[in-house]
Fold:
Amino acid sequence: MEDEDEGCKRATTKKANLHNYRNVPHEQGYSIILKNLPRHATIEMVQKNFKRFGAIRPGGINITTPKHGSFSIGIIEYESHQSVQAALEEYQRSDRPLDIQRRGDKKKYYLSEAMVMMDRGSPLFSVLFSHLQQTDKYLAMDICSCKRLMPVLRSVAVDFVQQVLLKGSKSVQLSTDEQAVLDSLDLSFTDMPMRLESLHDFLKNRSLEKVEVHLQNMVLAATPRGCLGFQGILGHIIKNHLTGLSWNGQFELGDIVVCNGDEFIITKTPQRFELVEDIPEETAKAFQADLTQICNCLTYYFSIDGMMPPYFPELFSMLLNIPEYACVSKTMLEIVYEFITHNPATKPPIAVANLFSGIHGGCGAYDDDDTTQFFRTVLQDAEVGWIDDVEEYGNKVLNGVLRYEEERRKKLARHGQIEEIETLPMVSYCDSLESFVQFVRHVFQHGTNKTKEYNSHRWIIKADGSSEPLEKFEPRLQQVRSLDELIMMIAISLGKHVLKVIYELLMNFAMKGMIESVWKDYKRSSYQKSVDDDGCDQ
Structure:
């Protein structure tokens, strides 16, 4: 309640800002705005009626329908100025009831809104919440958190509309009909979220945690909330890039807001850049500037004393220096962005385990000499020296899995079970990525056999040196609490090889065939906001 009271107090001091919305023009560009579309209007209907004026940009039609009122608002973005002019000329000289104007017109939006409200006899006065965010994001946040502020803002809106009407009619008082509409004025904020907060408030003190991993000291890990925030704002930037929009690095941490706990938005208006297959240098530089700036904004939340969670150092390094080959080709840029968006850094550990199990299953579905599956060829041809890394890191669990078959044979030999040795399958590792995938799958499947409490009193040593198991013994204590710990072990010591598997398959367009569905399922896995929003669940 104290937070709400403070929000109301802070917002009330800013209520005069509502008057400033009369000075908010629409974005510049080859666009028009349709102000009184029927509520049942669809994108398909608008496209059918307006495509005759010229080519419309892909995804260039947007329709907003307020919860109250009889009309919708539409925006059409054309490919050329000539198309905009043709649409304006036809509708302005016709008797059609559609209110149409150029987006970016010097005619002030809310002056027009006040007049149109009276023309249609509707008490609904709509404020676009996106305008509110751009004009004063702090007031926007206060409105979402303090519902008692609405009557105050309504009175400001009434004063504003009254001033517009009196100035327009050059009269000293309103007509009876105008006064009736004004008295029942319904202030609506179009597309207003239930909750709005800054990215800083969303992440502060809740983006990192220390987790226990078997045989390790406490390990730094990104929280589900941290992963959601990182992936969310990065996804927002990349989504805009792939439609040719960029901020050219001209935004700050304070310009980023979070709507309803899972929608991340940069409130500043992006610029349009040319995006074709051969990416212009200016566009590439603008995209890189955005990624560099978001790294600058997020480093504080994902590092402690220079340390970052697994995968994050490599992810930040790529964001700060997108490969040159990705900056000249739209196709390659899309692939690199797919790798960044679905980086293991922001995925639940179990999703990474399932991905590698699926890839292993895909490889095992074919005979060794079957070369028809390109994804398998890619993994077989790449040698990365991962075995040396396992041995150098010295993790007993990982080394135990690596040497499992060798130790198993020695154990059977010690117990005199020579015949059983001959029935064992031959499992040997090499430095290829395919072999590494097999190793990761074995760690996830068999690693818990190496994390049980050691108990040497489970066997009886006979006089001849052979041994046999005791008939009764206490079960060994399992020392890991979650299978996630096994995947974290791999991430800590072999994370660069995990990334290499995904990167090589994507860059060679090899996420196809038997593993395509596995990759799609992995991409769908992510952290989501929880019901109470105190944390995030998978």
Remarks:
- The chain has a mean pLDDT of 82.
- The chain has three domains: 2-197, 199-344, 351-524.
- The first helix runs from residue 2 to 12.
